[in-house]
Design a protein that fits this description.
By secondary structure, the chain is an alpha+beta fold. It has four helices and two strands, in the order ββαααα. Helix 1 packs across helix 3. The C terminus is likely disordered.
Length: 111
């Protein structure tokens, strides 16, 4: 039995069977979050929103900068609200797949 689909996925009925497939709109947000976080974590001083600090840059600093960038670009959570640090952390921790394969309850594609 499927509950609410994790961010990045949606449930549809195919031939009478519920399947979990990628939600392209949400996958776009996920790909942006993952890409920007990776770039910022690799070279944080390159990004002006992280350069204003004189202390060590932490993961939460990078997550907040990613959220600010998403807000500027109009990327939102499926509820229409801005992303939160917990949602970004969940995106970063989840292995997303664009395949039509089913995914487990954490959003990880089943192999």
């Amino acid at each position: 039995v499927f509950g609410k689909a994790p961010f990045g996925y949606k449930h549809i009925k195919i031939a009478g069977v519920m399947k979990r497939i990628a939600n392209e709109k949400e996958i776009t947000v996920i790909e942006h979050v993952n890409s920007l976080f990776s770039k910022m974590a690799t070279n944080p001083r390159k990004y002006s929103e992280l350069n204003s600090t004189f202390r060590n840059i932490t993961e939460i600093d990078i997550i907040k900068a990613v959220i600010r960038d998403c807000n500027r670009k109009g990327y939102r959570y499926r509820t229409g609200k801005p992303l939160t640090p917990a949602q970004v952390r969940r995106i970063l921790d989840t292995n997303y797949s664009r395949s039509d394969d089913e995914a487990d309850e954490d959003g990880d594609a089943l192999r």
